[in-house]
Specification:
Residues 6-213 form the Porphobilinogen deaminase N-terminal domain. The chain is an alpha/beta fold. It has 3 domains: 5-98 and 200-220, Periplasmic binding protein-like II (D-Maltodextrin-Binding Protein, domain 2, 3-Layer(aba) Sandwich), CATH 3.40.190.10; 106-187, Periplasmic binding protein-like II (D-Maltodextrin-Binding Protein, domain 2, 3-Layer(aba) Sandwich); 232-308, Porphobilinogen deaminase, C-terminal domain (Double Stranded RNA Binding Domain, 2-Layer Sandwich). It is 34% helix and 24% strand. The protein has 11 helices and 13 strands. It has helices at residues 14-30, 44-47, 53-56, 64-71, 130-139, 152-160, 171-176, 210-216, 222-237, 283-296, 299-308; strands at residues 5-11, 35-41, 77-81, 93-98, 106-109, 124-126, 144-146, 166-170, 185-187, 201-206, 246-253, 256-264, 271-279. It has a 5-stranded mixed β-sheet, sandwiched between helices. It has a 5-stranded mixed β-sheet with strand order 7-6-8-5-9, with helices on both faces. A 3-stranded antiparallel β-sheet has the order 11-12-13. The longest helix is centred in the first third of the chain and has 17 residues, at 14-30. It is globular. The protein starts with a strand and ends with a helix. Bound molecules: the ligand NCc1[nH]cc(CCC(=O)O)c1CC(=O)O. Residues 15, 81, 83-84, 169-170, 172-173, 198-199 line the site of the ligand NCc1[nH]cc(CCC(=O)O)c1CC(=O)O.
């Protein structure tokens, strides 16, 4: 392998390809003469489209094949949406870099209505995220939530086909795919606490690959890292994968990191919330402390019930 080449294992969805192309462009900008190649692959998560993900089970449905490619030396790095990255990594691989975060909010997408409040009694909302479902149903128990899978384009097509009155998507994905005009309104973190890592892109590589680690270094965004560390620490402590009704969202002002967390059940009948803040240097401890607070308020019983289904 030439010293001047770096290979990116990536999923083939338009959003994954955008993220891989973004990292390729950033790497080429940072290192003159570097050749960056894309290795597009299918993952289990891309193939199983008819079953709600929470039921398919297993963490990291969207990353395993990419990790195998790196371990076998077929690729050097993988680019992930941080919210889809499992909390632990296989031996020999690690999360090396977290890039600057895009808009972390959820977006309300509808061809008819401006926001959730405008939806008529009993309207049908598409989302497969238990976290989104929980928060929407807590605010509007009358709404009917229907499963919605597939990549961003597929989900928008299902909305346009009239299957739903509205759907909820991550604002980041729509912005990256230049589909921002499809957003009827942004949902504030108060109304829909984002998933841990939402809107942030992370880069994974072999932990012993010093050449690649040095090449990746300029892409690191320190503030985003602190935020995502706090959010992920909360999730890890709660033993939550990405398909659980957990919201975790950190913001930074100067040295102070403020973290909000939420655990609920899918029908929105129970929602446990908490918040904490402290020095950003203590991001991980803040996440753990907030998880413990949520657990002491009853989060464990809720999560156990969700996993038992
Ligand atoms: N769960 C799928 C997923 N993973 C990452 C994004 C896009 C935004 C991001 O980077 O967080 C999406 C789509 C969505 O939730 O609408």
């Amino acid at each position: 392998m030439s010293q001047n080449v770096i290979r990116i294992a990536t999923r083939k969805s338009p959003l994954a390809m955008w993220q891989a192309e973004f990292v390729k462009a950033e790497l080429e900008k940072a290192h003159e003469g570097l050749v960056v190649e894309l290795l597009p692959m299918s993952t289990k998560g891309d193939v199983i489209l008819d079953t709600p993900l929470a039921k398919v089970g297993g963490k990291g449905l969207f990353v395993k094949e990419l990790e195998v490619a790196m371990l076998e030396g077929k690729a050097d790095i993988a680019v992930h949406s941080m919210k889809d990255v499992p909390v632990d990594f296989p031996e020999g691989l690690g999360l090396q870099v977290i890039c600057e975060r895009e808009d972390p909010r959820d977006a309300f997408v509808s061809n008819t209505y401006k926001n959730i409040e405008e939806l008529p009694q009993g309207a049908i909302v598409g989302t497969s995220s238990l976290r989104r479902q929980c928060q929407i149903r807590a605010a509007r128990p009358d709404l009917e939530i229907r499963d919605l899978r597939g990549n961003v384009g597929t989900r928008l097509a299902k909305l346009d086909a009239g299957n739903y009155d509205a759907i909820i998507l991550a604002a980041a994905g729509l912005k990256r795919l230049k589909l921002e005009e499809r957003i009827a309104s942004f949902i504030s973190a108060e109304d829909s606490l984002p998933a841990n890592g939402q809107g942030a892109v992370g880069i994974e590589c072999r932990t012993d690959d010093e050449r690649v680690k040095a090449l990746l270094a300029p892409l690191e965004h320190t503030e985003t890292r602190y935020r995502v560390i706090a959010e992920r620490a909360m999730n890890t402590r709660l033993e939550g994968g990405c398909q659980v009704p957990i919201g975790a969202y950190a913001e930074i002002d100067g040295d102070i990191l403020s973290l909000r967390g939420l655990v609920g059940n899918p029908d929105g009948s129970q929602v446990i919330r908490g918040a904490t803040s402290g020095s950003k240097q203590d991001a991980e401890q803040l996440g753990i402390a907030l998880a413990d607070e949520l657990l002491s308020k009853g989060a464990k019983a809720i999560l156990d019930a969700v996993y038992a289904k």
